[in-house]
Structure formats: C-alpha cells, structure tokens
Fold each of these.
Amino acid sequence: MSDKALANDLFALLQSPIDMAAIVREVRADQDGAIVTFDGFVRNESHGRPTLYLDYQAYEHMALSKMREIGMLAREKFAIHRIAIVHRLGRLQIGETSVFIAISAPHRNAAFDACRFAIDTLKRTVPIWKKEYFDDGAVWADGELPPAPPSTPKAAS
Amino acid sequence: MLFFGRMRDLTGVTEEALELPTGATLADAFARYAARFPQLDAFRSSLVASRNEEFASWDTPLTEDDTIAFLPPVSGG
C-alpha cells in the first residue's frame, strides 16, 4: 500500500486554527457527489468537571505517518476520492476545533463509512495526547492503548 | 529515546540518548528508566512501546540509532 495517497489528500498537524472551509474545498471535485466531514472540538466539561482549556501534544512525525496510513486504509476499504485529516496541537480553548476530517466520494455511503473509520482509527492509533485543565489542576485524558504487535517468539498465542 | 504526555511529566525528560548493551530489547530500555524513575513501573501495563515510529512488542531487539518511545494511551481527537 505504498503510493495510493493522491496529491490532493491532506494530512497535517497545525499550531493555528483549522480552516475547515479551505479543507472542504481541497477535497471537492467535479467527479464527486458527496463530502462527509467530521469536526471534533473542545467540550466545556470532562466527566462532569468544567474544563478551562486543553493542551494537545503529539509525536509529530509518527502521528503524520499514522494519519497517512489511515488515509491509505480508508482508500482500500471504501470507494472514496480524496481524504483530508488535520489535527491541531498546542493550547485549545472551549469550542475550538481539534480535529477535522473531510472525505469526498462519488456516492455518500462510502464517504460516511470512511469518515467514521478515519476518526475511530485516529483515536486508537495516532500518537497524540491531550491534557485537560480544570480549576484545581490538570490531567492527561484517559485514552486508548494502541494495539502493539504480538511478541516475537513465545507469547504470540 | 523520546517521552510524551504523562511520561514526559513524570520523568522531566523530552529527549535523550541511551546506551544499552548489544541485544538489549525495548523491555530492557524500559527497565533502565524504571530504575531511574521508580514511579514509571506502575504505568508499564498502560504503555505501548514504539521503535522507529512503529508500535513494537516489548521483546523487540534494539540496534544502534533506533528511536524509541514508551507511549501512553493516545487521546487525540
């Protein structure tokens, strides 16, 4: 699955606000009939505690390569045209977009399915972390442990 | 050797070089840090190791100039 990403695919980590309209324009083409987007933004509470703001940190080079991998997998699984996955890093205030995904396709079902696949996979496999700040302190958010390959010789049952 | 998220906070280390004997694995590298920062031991089961930007099992042998990290559960999105 080497070179399936097209020129118009877009994978990026940004320190500045995400321009959602520009990304949607980027994936839109005359041969498409649908674009599905996912806008993930900062909620004002976490487990019932009011949140002040979030800090996002990434293993940037690996995160970008995992995002590209999601793009390639999505292209293999679904009949989509273009895919954009953009994640913001640094400090984000309530209501600001942290992740934006836009996927175009000739038909809507593929775009819906691929978008769901992309955000779900991102949340499990892309090395990005968020720290939640509250009135009385800060915690790293509960996350998901990415699946590691099985051990080599013995414990591979 | 790279540290992120809670691991960076616990160790105060962002990035450093690590010398290990030939044949050492990711588990050996972790043990080295757990000896230096005993509070890391409690987190071992909730970490996944990476070698050269790929998730890797703890028994993966290391070679010179590998870039490794012990990654906490990811929480992007």
Note: DSSP finds three helices and ten strands in chain A.
Amino acid sequence: MATSSPIARSLDAGLGETVVFPSPGQIIRRRMRRHKGLIIGGVIVVVTFLVAIFAPVLAPHDPYAQNLSQRMIPPIWHEKGTWNHPLGTDNLGRDYLSRVVYGCRVSLIIGFSIMLIALTIGTTLGVLAGYFGGKMDMLVSFIVTVRLALPPVLVALAVVVLIGGSMTVVIVALGFLIWARAAVVMRASTQQIRSQDYVAAAQAAGCSTIRILLTEILPNLADNLVVVATLEIGRAILLEAALSFLGMGVQPPTPSWGLMISEGKDFMFFQPYLITIPGTALFLLVLGMNLLGDGIRDVTVPEGRA
Amino acid sequence: MNPVLEVKGLYVDLPLPAGMLHAVRNVSFQVNRGETVSLVGESGCGKSMTALAVMNLLPRKGVRTAEVLSFEGRDLLKIDDSGMADIRGNKMSMIFQEPMTSLDPCYTIGNQLEEAMRQHRKVPKAKARDRAVFLLEKVGITAAQSRLKQYPHQLSGGLRQRVMIAMGLMCGPSLIIADEPTTALDVTIQTQILGLLASLQQEFEMGLILITHDLGVVSRTADRLAVMYCGEVVETGTTQEVFDNPVHPYTRGLMACIPVPGKTQPGEKLGSIPGMVPTPIGALTGCSFRNRCSGALPDCAMTETRLIEISPGRAYRCLLSPEACAAEWSRSRHG
Amino acid sequence: MITYTLKRLGLAALVAVTVSIVSFMLIRLSGDPAIALAGENATSEQIDFIRKQYGFDRPLVVQYLEWGRRAMRGDFGESPYFNQPVTRIIGDRIGVTMKLGLMSLIFAVAVSIPMGVLASIRPNTWIDRVALTISVMGQAMPSFWFGLIMIIVLGVWLRLLPISGTDSFAHFIMPTIALGYYGIPAFMRLTRSGMLEVLSSDHIRTARAKGLRWGKVLFKHALRNAIIPVVALAAVQLGFMLGGSIVIESVFALHGIGYLAWESIGRRDLPVVQAIVLLLSMIFVALTLISDIINAFLDPRIRVK
C-alpha cells in the first residue's frame, strides 16, 4: 500500500486558483436578478395589483358615472383631449381612465378566482394520478381527455347564457373548465417527485399516505405550482375577456376590459382608442403574468425551460 | 514511414461558468499505418476531447489550438468545414462509446450505412448496398441482407456496435478512432469486438487510435500507448516498454491498481492511488499529479513539467529521473 | 400496430360517449329548456305545454338515450329558430369553419417550425430571443382584439384586405392569422426544445462523424426526430382552433359553426347548440386518435415491434 508523504499532504488540494462553487440559494437569487423577463413581469404584476388596490384613489372619476354631454372625448394625445379625462370617455360619457383602473380589479379578481378553482381541481386530480398511478392514473387521464374534448368557450358560453351572466357564474363556469393543464403538469411533477428516494424513505418509515402527500409531495410541487398558477391567471383573464367581448360574460356596466372592447367596437373605426386602450391593458397584464411565470420557471427549474 | 496522423502541441479549452477548463494540454502523438496507438487514462483525463479535437467535433464553445495537426500530410488546422466534412467518415472514421444511442432510431440500418458511402462517393444505391452487406458480413453479422431493413432498436448493443464499425469502414478509411468501443458491452462481447477491430486493421492496413481506461484492453491490442492524466500526456512508449517498465508514478499506480495479464503475480496485493483527479480549471501551475504522488517535492508545485525523452518514442513527464522515480516507488510500496 | 389502433379506437369511443353525456347534461341542467324555448314572456301554461311536447318532463336519462339514439342516426332534431333540420343548418356552415381551422393550423406550423429550428441552431442569440419574444407576445394578446386591430389597420387604413364575409381567399387571411397566431408559441417552443434535445444526442454526433453536411444532418436526422411530438400536437391544436373559432368568426362575421353556435346560444336554440358541442367534441376525439396514430407511424420504435 502506497502511503502519502507528509509533504504531499500539506500541499494545496487544488492545482491552481481555488474555484468556488455557489450554493443553490445563491444561484437562484443571482438568476433572479439577471432575468429581465422575471423583473419586467414582476413589476407589471405588482403595479397592476397596486392600481387595483388603490383604485378609488387613482381613478379621477366614478367608473359608472355617465355623462352624455361628455361622450367620446378622445385621450389627451389628441388635440381635442382634456386632462379632465386623460384617456378620454366612452360613448356613454364614462371616464376611460377610471374604467381602466377599476378594470384592473375586475381582471385580477376574476383571474385569481378562476385560477384558484382550476388549480384546486387540477392539482388534486394531478397529484392523485401521479402518486397512485395505475387505475387512478387511467381514470384521471380519461377525465382530462373528456374535458379537453369539450370546447371550453362554447360550454362556458352556454352555461353562462342559460344560467345568466354575472361575475360569479363566469368564475365558476371557467374555473370548472380550465383545470386540465394544471392537472397534466401536476401529474408529471408528482410522478417525478414520487420516484425520489426521500419519498421511498418516508413510505418505508411507515408514514401514512396523507402525511406523505402533505409533507413530502406538496411542498416540492410548490415551484411548479407557482409557475402554473401565474400562467393560468393569464389564460383565465383572456378567457373572461373573450366571454365578455361576446356579451356572455360580465354584464354591463361593470368595467371589464373585454366588455369595454365589445362596447367600443361599434365606434372603433373613428375612435380606435376605445378598443386600443383596454386591449393594451389586457395585453400588458397577461404579458406580465406570463413573463412572471416563465421567469420563475427559468429561475427555479432551468432544465424545464424549452 | 509517413505517419497517418501527426499531433503536436494540441490544446483544447472549454469555457465553463466556474472558469476555463483546460481539457487537453500540450498533447502530442502520432499514428502510423497499420499501427494501434492507445490513449489511456481515467474518465475526464481528456482522451475523448483529444479525439474530438482531431475530428473537429468539439462542442460549440470548445477551442482547439495545435502546433501541428496533420492527417496524411494535410494540415487539418487550415481546412474549412466542408473540407473536414469530406474527410470525416471517408478517410477518418470515429466509433463511439454508446452503441445504444449512436444510431438514428428513425432510419433503417441499411439507410444509415449507405448514407455513409453515398455522402462521399457518387455511387448508385445498389453499389452502396452491396458494400454495406459486404462489411456487415465482415464484422460478423449474419443474415446481412435482411438486417439492412431493420431498425436500430431491433438490434442488441453488441450488434449495434458492429454496425457502427461497419459504418466506419464504408469508405475505406486510413484511420479509425475508437472511443471506448467496448466499455458499454458485456465482457464476452468485448473480446470479440476487440479481435474484430484488430483483424480489420490488419486486413485494411488502417491506423487505429484506441481510447480506453482499461489497461487490459491496451495490453492486448495496442502497439504504442500514451498515458494521459488531467489533460496531459504523462508517459509514452510501446506497450511492451511501458508495461515492462513504467516510469511515471501515475502509470506505476495504474499498473498496480489492476491485475494486468502477464504481469501481476498470483497473491500479489493490488495498489490504489490516494486522492482524486483534480479538475483542470483556471490557471494551473506545476505538476498535475503532485497531490497524489508519494514522491512529491516542493518544486513540483512551481516548476512547469516537460516531457522528457528516454529513447525515441519513449518519454515521461516528471521532475525526477527514471531511477529516482523507481527508487521512490519501491520505497513507497515496501518501505 | 393493429392492436394499438384498436385499443385507441375503443378508448376514443368511450370518450365520445362520455363527452356526449356531459354536454347533454350540462346544457339540460343549465336552465329549464322549456323556458328557454318558450321565451321570456311565456305564460306558465305555454311553458308546460312546451315541456310536454318536447318531452322535457321525462327523466334525464331517458331524454339522453332518446337524443343519443336519434343522434346516431344523424337526426339532431329541428331548430326552432330556423325550422329546419339541425344537420342541414350545420352542414351549410361547417365548411367555413373547417377551412378556417386548417388554414390557421398551416399558418401556425409554417411560421413556427422554421423559427423553432433557427432558434435551436443558435440558442441564446438574437434569433432565439426574437423567436421567444414573438412567442411571449403572442400568448398575451387577446385574439379578438388582435383581430379587431388587424381590421382597422389592414382593412380600413391600408385597405389591403376585405374585412368581412367569406367570398374569396383574401377574406380568410386576417381570420387565419388571428386564429393561428395563438398556436405559434406552443409549436415553436416544442420544435425548439425538441431540436435542442436531438441536436445534442449521440446519433447526431455520429451523423457529423460520417461527414454529413449540416443541412442533411439538420433535416434528415435532427428534424425528423424532433418533429414527431410536433405533428402529434398539430392534430390536437387543430381541435383547439376549431373550438376557439367562435370568437374569430364573430369578429369577422364568418358564417361558420362557431358563429352559429354563438347566435344559437343567444337565441336559446338548444338542439343546434347541443349538436355543435357534440360535433366539435367528436372531431377533437378523432383528431387525438389521428395524432396517436401519426405518432406511432412516425416513430419506428412504436411502429415496428
């Protein structure tokens, strides 16, 4: 057996300069700071939140107040615009800026509520399918296939019209329709987590299934859950806007951006701002959500990125 | 005799987030017609990178520089991509380690074999097919005609590797580079494949670079070898010379670690080399092996090592003389 | 291969039946169809009369079986609004929707696959970033808004394209773009990730070691492998596009079944709505089946056992 000499032991372990490998937490924080999409998305979402919360303070007028003598005033970048109505007024004389500001509330509330319902259903199904596999997996996959076969907009429309349009109906109808993506993603993640050693260890130690699900599986799903949640909020907001645009969603005079586009489209050839403003608001909010979701995914699970 | 391949002063660098990885450092060797040269070393020592550098198949970020890199008299450093592509698969072929994943699952064996030939020679399909059948039989695959229509997933690992060898031979190359061709295969198949390579080399008078970590394989098939450690060549010579009389402490350590047929006596205790292979990242100083070497001196950390020639083709990289190395070695083993 | 297809067929049939049950129940349970048919000002006697006449007073299961039985014969009843068989009404309009759907799919694929391939060859360069930006922007835009903007810009200001109706090919250009662009991100990402994965695989290294030129390596070996999931996705995306056509058709006033569905929902024309939902679902199920078969066909590992 070769023995190592005292001189060899006292020499440095590396060959050249010492190389430092950062810790996982440091890696994530560093990535977060450098990820432009994440920062932009985060800023947009936070700003929208703040606007929604402080709507009464930020909105110069009551979004529902009609004033027919002030109809169709263009925004300030036109010559006929006034600072009294920075984004102009619609065909009923309602201040557009106020409606956009309050629209943040509508979009965020609806988006979040739909997401909560969809994610609860989707995660439950996905985790069950991923954890138990076998027949449960087949059953859930079957349910997902059935759901995917049904055209969501059509079904939501039908339900809304037949029951009657209101925020609650829209939220419940859409929430119960768009859980499929969440289910698929959660199923895949659960399968992957389940195959890890620490789950096997917990099972071997005799932990009850519920306990394993709550303490081992769910916390590790958190990353993916957040990503899916943000992306689904974006999708929910767009769906609600589409429904409202078709007249079968939130009902007037609620300031939903989709509804504003619908109301404005009759006049859009001469006053395009009626649709460009709420459309841009929609676009920015969904963009922010998507950037945020993608950014979180890039930062926490870089291999998951395309 | 003109060498088929001459490599002198080859460097390969790969930028990593943690720093610049010096995967290959000042490697030189040459391969003659009909001769097998083996690059031996542990995983990560740079032998595969050397091969990829010769073929110019390095990863996108990899940078290679060399004093001399010539193949059959042509300067590979000055050739453009298209010129190099003409040589690959044609005059110079490479066989890889993982036969299970080295073939395209969407095309038949026949398609992939014929493709190798039709890329470089304007021959009708029938001719290429005949050549494919001929070579499949040469590599020992029965029912060659029907095999052509099969897909890779229908063949075992050993068969796939034979197909890879046949594919390398389609255009009659002067040089074959085999990167760990038998590592992923069963021991019994290993012997067959190695024997196959040897006989094919004889028959077609090719040069063969055999890359491996298995000294047993080397002792059976190589004419000359170069031991690599941490990106550098630490010892060269004919197989006979190196096995009979290893000079460099690492080579000695390797020989002592595993039973070598014909050398190890029954009942002899096997050795081990303490420590781990360092990663050559960033600025490097001194001898790469010093942390695991029982004869290391303070000088070893500072002085640049050079390959010292004992006789033509026989060299080693160490500050100590061969006699001093030998003395230190027996002291550490028996002292 | 045969058993595989049969199994998938069986599953598809099961899904189809379940979908028909779900859609039937959903629509029946969403509100009293008798009231819907009778209209807002109907008296309770009128409503009761309608209920008896259409058999809405029978148990749901019976109603479903009755409807299902007729549906299998191709009889979806009559539309109270049009006073014509539902099948004929749908038949008149389905061509428009199919045309729109297929064109949108072709558009999406034609744009995203080259972009995805380019992005994968030069990952993290400006091409990649442009592709990803387009992808991210595309997913955030409401399709109906995009359609309206195109109408304003291309139809009115620039007068390049006609803005409604279905008379010519040019009429379909804007709707195709409006419906198709939403699918571009998904295809592009899938192509890109598939290509990235394949390009780093061993058999691509082998192809290059054989001396094949980059063009051949990319198309014969890389794309051929990477395209398999994309083709499978295409079939499914077509299904989504058909379902989503309702919004685009109403924006551009195209008389397809999406528009018909919207109008019928508004008019409480239940037989038509039920038939359309069932039809779209069946098409989707058929498309997933086709997608699986294409998948198996393209990948020899599944096809040749």
Note: Chain C has a mean pLDDT of 84.
